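Q: I have 100 residues here and want to know how they pack in 3D. Can you give me a structure?
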Amino acid sequence: MRRTLFRSVVAGALAAVLGAAPAAAGWRDRYEVHGVEDDDMLKMRAGPGTGYVVIAGLPNGTVLRVHSCQQTGGTRWCNVSLERARTLKGYVSWAYLRKM
């Protein structure tokens, strides 16, 4: 009985980990900021919308890792981190990202 329970717990844990792998793999996708006016920067915000405070301005060519995206109103917002400073995280508009 104990072995059966142990096997069930281990099998459940493995299924949870393996089942989550494809979704978790998306965070590895690298994108670059693209399409921002030359005299402007893409605003990285604290949350998914223009009502959130701006954390940083990102020029064209900035490399980001996309963790997840969500639709808020008419804009798709992505939770991202900087490639070279991964602790700096925030939200940017999907419209200004290009897959690398």
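Q: Anything worth noting?
A: The longest helix spans residues 2-25. The chain has a mean pLDDT of 80.
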